[in-house]
Amino acid sequence: MCFADISARVMVALVALTLMTSSALGFEVESRKLYQAKSERSRLKVISTADLNVFDPIIRAFQDAHSGITVDYTVTGTTDLMGALYDEGAVFDLAISSAMDLQTKLANDGFAQDHAPQIATTLPAWATWRDQLFAFTQEPAILVVSDEFFAEGTAPQNRDELIAVLRDNPDRFQGKIGTYDVRRSGFGYLMATQDSRNSDAFWRLMEVMGRLDAKLYCCSGDMIRDVASGKLALAYNVLGSYAAAQLKHTNGFQIIEMSDYVNVMSRTALIPRTAENVDDARMMLDFLLDLKARKDLVAASGLPAVDAAALRTNPSLRPVRYGPALLVFLDNLKRQSFLRNWENSLLQN
Q1: Does 275 map to a domain?
Q2: 233 with 173: CB under 8 angstroms?
Q3: What is the residue-wise DSSP string for 34-100?
Q4: Alpha-carbon dihedral 182, 186, 188, 194, rounded to 10 degrees
Q5: Residues 222, 164: contact at Cβ < 8 Å?
Q6: Are residues 133 and 76 in the same domain?
Q7: Which domain range does residue 248 map to?
Q8: Which helix (H) or strand (E) holds 237?
Q9: d(Cα 163, Cα 168) in Å, to the nearest integer?
Q10: CB distance 322 to 138 below 8 Å
Q11: Is 312 exposed, middle or buried (0-12, 13-18, 19+ CB in 10 A)?
């Protein structure tokens, strides 16, 4: 074989490798773990926004019940998960996300398969949509405050109190506030748009935070860490389940559920249109929907199961509901308008 032929073959191989690598890196992988079955009969590919340490006990319990299934678990961000399935046609058997609006759009636009869960009769009406999208948790968006800045019993309890505290103490809180960068975080964008629908106080709060040079984050875990260390005085719209789980192991912060209202997000699962192992995906989805019956897993993961009774006893809890209303702020013009207003409020420097 001549050198030219070898070079040509090498070039073809390099091009193919480049294309494969580009495709593989089309969305950002935050972490990935292969849960190898001892005697593998099938493999289940899961894409999720839930951190490995959160979902690990659930996956292991699922494998205890279904020992022949290897679980390939990939963690990415909410917008990356949407892009992987919507734009790239990535092959996954189950998609789990905290961004209810993006999951709703996937289902609405034909990117999800139908499923009839075995425990459908026990699910509240608001926990399912079109037999394709299913909620298995209910998690509040909360305020996290640092013990270094707020003694017990002194933290603001509602948005008006929070605005007043920040306005009256600009030097104390300059550069010490954290919240989501809603341009990067699908969950952050969902919570912000829900806030804007619930109360005019949201935009006043954003303007105050902007004047105080609020720090913008992609993830709840990073905000919680910085509040616990005293780097931040407070963080707004943090995922409550992550904060509660962290509080078990870390001191230095308090969790505040606002008394005016608390947006409650549901972590959802769907079977993508591209799924190849649909049978196992259905089994895992049913396993997730039965989370309420597994108090051990609720405790181990820190993920509160769907509990309609809890919502009835606390009127300040407002679950985000499925439906066309969730798609409003995903319209390009609406999104651009919202982000423009948000940037004008937050990015004043």
Answers
A1: yes
A2: yes
A3: EE--TT-SEEEEEEESS-HHHHHHHHHHHHHHSTTEEEEEEE--HHHHHHHHHTS----SEEEES-H
A4: 100
A5: no
A6: yes
A7: 139-264+329-346
A8: strand 234-239
A9: 9
A10: no
A11: exposed
**Which pTM does this prediction carry?**
0.80
Distance CA 44, CA 63 (A): 11
Torsion of CA 245, 246, 250, 251, to 10 degrees: -80
Q: Are 139 and 264 spatial neighbours (Cβ–Cβ below 8 Å)? A: yes
Please give the tally of structural domains in the chain: 2
Measure CA 21 to chain center: 26
Is 289 found in the same domain as 260? Answer: no
Q: Is 116 helix (H, G, I), strand (E, B) or coil?
A: coil
Residue 219 sits in the same domain as residue 303: no
pLDDT digits (tens, 9 = 90+) for 86-143: 999 999 999 999 889 999 999 999 999 999 988 756 777 778 899 999 999 999 999 9
Please report, for the domain that includes residue 36, its CATH number. Answer: 3.40.190.10
Pairing mode, strands 234-239 and 177-180: parallel
